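Section 3.1: Structural characterization of target chains.
Under the original work plan, the team committed to producing a structural model for every single-chain target entering the pipeline before any wet-lab resources were allocated. The record below documents one such target. The sequence was received from the expression subgroup and is listed exactly as submitted; it comprises 245 residues.
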Amino acid sequence: MFKAIISAEALQDAIKAVSAVVDEARFEIAPEGLSARAVDPANAAMVSLELSNDAFTLFEGTEGEIGIDLSRFVEILGMADRSGEIELELDPDTHKLDISMSGLSYTLSLLDPSTMRKAPSVPALDLPAEIAVSGSVFKRMIKAAEMVSDHMSMGVHDGVFFMEATGDTDHVRLDLTGSDLIAIKPAEVRSLYSLDYLTDISKGVGGAGEIVIDLGRDLPVVIKFEPTSGDCKIKYVLAPRIESD
């Protein structure tokens, strides 16, 4: 059983973040709220969502799971007024999701969770550096790197968080310290990542005010944030590209 009412802004931001890296996902329903973990087909990027029942005006749910085509779900949610509310109800007979918003009613066919990839385990990573930056700074550094290359390095050196990208002819570097950062736990680290994935992740970040980045040396990066609507936690894990000598 699942029935819920939530602000359109909160649900749109949450689903947009998940759909940034995967096209479909298995959502776990529990009395505590909704959660999802999914990995992209190339096994390079993972996304984790925790949407607390406190994010909902109404939440009634028993243990279960549903599979959702995120591309279709995003399209439907895009019809909602962000200042309004969205009602969700799982039809136990048809096993479809009834969606009501702004006078519109949709019935979304669900995917069979048993035919979908199992939710991945969150990897245990020892990442010594942690950096908190504003969402706008995070997007700016990725946009700058896109202009010159298809990959980007992130790291910390002498307490300075940096982004660096080198193309065939051009080079860009952004150093952030002091007031440019919200917080930093420094360590000497550096890793290289695909900009295709980072660009998708930056789209999922939306209008988040703060992004937390956990880094190691040639290790996956963990990117965490909470959408402005609150009571929701998003985590991305992106595998590094190993640099050749």
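The first strand starts at residue 2 and ends at 7.
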